[in-house]
């Protein structure tokens, strides 16, 4: 019966589309209860969208589609999924609050060990003490298989058999990696979990500041200002900014963080220029390194910054990299970034309870450059899961990516000439192959967002 109703609705939609202007009579109002949301999306896009010229003619569009499907029909080929539409009151999904990567157990193609790669502070996983670099070997006394993997994502309490990585010498005298159990953990039930913008920070030996920054979130600007003062008081001269999990956020935060990091004599200089469509040229403007933003914080007056990157690093994070480059040395350690060089803005409808985020402008640095649509290539390529012994909590000086940055700072690692990046699939000494990675759904907005 349900399928018949759906088919009937689709048939009515098709008939309605063919008769909206039948006999020269405008029948849009008659069908507005079904087409209103899409008509609202269409009107905003034609006025605000950077590539509004690429939107198809009205007569070629189906206004009976769901909002996300309709948006896909009208965006430009230049829009690589940057524009989005969502319900106004989207909520986080239940989760245990950790990311993991599965590896086949040597000699057993059907069972896996799960390497924990990130733990959200305050999540069920954090409450029970799970840490990045630990292994889950069994769930509820059973090996992890394709059928039981779902037990790692959400649900009730789980009993976990935990393991740790070490090396030992085999009978042939060769060193090999092994994972051995060391105890159990009782994972609490899943619940809606929100990530934090700043999961770790420190001042390391030698006066090196470290900041893991997961999102350019305006709600955390006061904490960012507090930390800038903390780094200043600790006489930080070198700085490692960890953006490996940062998929973007608010442009206001980019301006603030750039002002904190930049050389003091560059305050007041142009940070970026925003260029809108021909319809919205009056909105074109420049952003500066604005010392008025530093109330309660400090400028660190750095000449160089080391940024840890991954394929997740995108949007606002890439804007920061691009806009700092004309003024200071930016050393990228990790992997090529995503490549998202445009900005979106939010338009909400209380009537339809949806929010539309179309691309509205291009963002250039002070040299007029925004040529990173394929991402920024790392100056020193690092696979963060290459060596299991170095998969450690964020901020640990021995963690793979951070230790590489520290090696560049102290001179023990020399930056190579640009060359192709290594295979992203880790091949550690255990010769275990990664078969699947899983990430919790982030609660932060992606991309580069203008208020």
TrEMBL record:
PROSITE patterns: PROKAR_LIPOPROTEIN. One of its GO terms (cellular component) is outer membrane-bounded periplasmic space. Coiled coil: none annotated. InterPro entries: ClpP/crotonase-like_dom_sf (IPR029045), PDZ_sf (IPR036034), Pept_S41_N (IPR041613), Tail-specific_protease (IPR005151). Residues 208-381 form the Tail specific protease domain. Residues 414-436 are annotated as: Disordered. GO terms for molecular function: endopeptidase activity; serine-type peptidase activity. This is Peptidase S41. PANTHER family: CARBOXY-TERMINAL PROCESSING PROTEASE CTPA, TAIL-SPECIFIC PROTEASE. Residues 40-83 form the Peptidase S41 N-terminal domain. CDD domains: Peptidase_S41_CPP_like. The lineage of its organism: Bacteria, Pseudomonadati, Bacteroidota, Bacteroidia, Bacteroidales. GO terms for biological process: proteolysis; signal transduction. Residues 418-428 have a biased composition (Acidic residues).
């Amino acid at each position: 019966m349900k399928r018949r109703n759906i088919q009937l609705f689709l048939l009515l939609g098709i008939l309605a589309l063919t008769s909206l202007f039948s006999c020269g009579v405008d029948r849009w109002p008659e069908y507005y209860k079904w087409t209103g949301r899409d008509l609202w999306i269409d009107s905003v896009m034609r006025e605000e969208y950077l590539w509004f010229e690429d939107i198809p003619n009205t007569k070629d569009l189906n206004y009976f589609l769901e909002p996300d499907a309709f948006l896909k029909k009208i965006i430009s080929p230049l829009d690589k999924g940057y524009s989005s539409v969502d319900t106004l009151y989207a909520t986080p999904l239940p989760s245990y609050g950790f990311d993991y990567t599965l590896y086949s157990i040597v000699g057993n193609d059907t069972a896996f060990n799960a390497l924990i790669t990130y733990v959200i502070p305050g999540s069920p996983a954090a409450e029970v003490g799970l840490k990045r670099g630990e292994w889950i070997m069994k769930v509820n006394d059973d090996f992890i298989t394709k059928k039981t993997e779902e037990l790692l994502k959400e649900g009730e309490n789980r009993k976990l058999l935990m393991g740790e990585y070490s090396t030992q010498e085999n009978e042939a005298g060769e060193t090999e990696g092994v994972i051995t159990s060391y105890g159990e953990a009782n994972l609490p039930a899943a619940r809606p979990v929100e990530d934090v913008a700043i999961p770790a920070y420190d001042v390391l030996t030698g006066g090196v500041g470290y900041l893991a920054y997961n999102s350019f979130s305006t709600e955390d600007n006061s904490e960012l200002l507090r930390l800038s003062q903390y780094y200043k008081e600790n006489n930080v001269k070198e700085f490692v900014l960890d953006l490996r999990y940062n998929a973007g956020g608010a442009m206001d935060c980019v301006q603030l963080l750039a002002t904190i990091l930049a050389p003091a004599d560059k305050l007041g200089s142009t940070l970026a220029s925003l260029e809108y469509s021909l319809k919205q040229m009056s909105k074109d403007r420049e952003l500066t390194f604005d010392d008025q933003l530093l109330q309660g914080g400090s400028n660190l007056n750095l000449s160089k910054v080391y940024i840890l990157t991954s394929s997740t690093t995108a949007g606002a994070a890439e804007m920061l990299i691009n806009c700092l480059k004309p003024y200071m040395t930016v050393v990228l350690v990790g992997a090529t970034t995503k490549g998202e060089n445009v900005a979106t803005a939010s338009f909400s409808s209380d009537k339809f309870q949806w929010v539309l985020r179309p691309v509205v402008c291009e963002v250039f640095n002070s040299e007029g450059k925004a040529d990173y649509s394929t991402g920024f290539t790392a100056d020193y390529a690092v696979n963060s899961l290459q060596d299991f012994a170095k998969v450690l909590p964020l901020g640990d000086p021995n963690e793979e990516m951070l230790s590489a940055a520290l090696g560049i700072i102290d001179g023990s690692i020399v930056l190579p000439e640009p060359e192709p990046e290594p295979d992203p699939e880790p091949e550690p000494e255990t010769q275990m192959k990664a078969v699947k990675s899983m990430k919790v759904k982030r609660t932060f907005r992606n991309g580069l967002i203008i208020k």
